[in-house]
Amino acid sequence: EVQLQASGGGLVQTGGSLNLSCAASGFSFANYDIGWFRQDPRRERDGVSCISHTDGSTFYKESVKGRFTISIDKAKNTMTLQMNSLEPEDTAVYYCNSDGLWGQGTLVTVSS
Q: pLDDT by residue (tens digit) across 81-100?
């Protein structure tokens, strides 16, 4: 079965850190671009960061630049999003996506 499994969300105070993981089964991250999106009830799902499978180039939403880092471990077929200096505005359900396939989402809550 082809699927993505996101994990690592939780409750953290402002300024704290979380590390999100996305594990793939049934396909390889080595062959597809992959990224993180997030959505809270007030907004549409929004792209946060993505990484190219060809050259490893990355993209970050302006508001997370310098705070979030995306990476891939091809050997483990997992993607991570290291999130530092978290702010209440980062509160959302975070989803991983690759080639149109969505993971189930993991909730990140940042308290002020």
A: 999 999 999 999 999 999 88
pLDDT digits (tens, 9 = 90+) for 54-85: 899 999 999 999 999 999 988 899 999 999 99
Between β-strands 58-60 and 3-7, what pairing exists: parallel, antiparallel or unpaired?
Answer: unpaired
Distance CA 73, CA 96 (A): 15
CA separation for the pair 23, 11 (Å, rounded): 21
* C-alpha–C-alpha distance, residues 75 and 41, integer Å: 35
Q: What is the pLDDT of residues 25-35, one digit of tens each?
A: 888 888 889 99
CB-count burial class (<10 Å; 0-12, 13-18, 19+) for 37: buried
Residue 60's contacts (CB-CB under 8 Å, 6 or more residues apart) are: 48, 49, 68, 70
End-to-end CA distance of the chain: 40
- Residue with token string 């590390």: 19
Helices (H) and strands (E) in the chain, counts: 0, 11
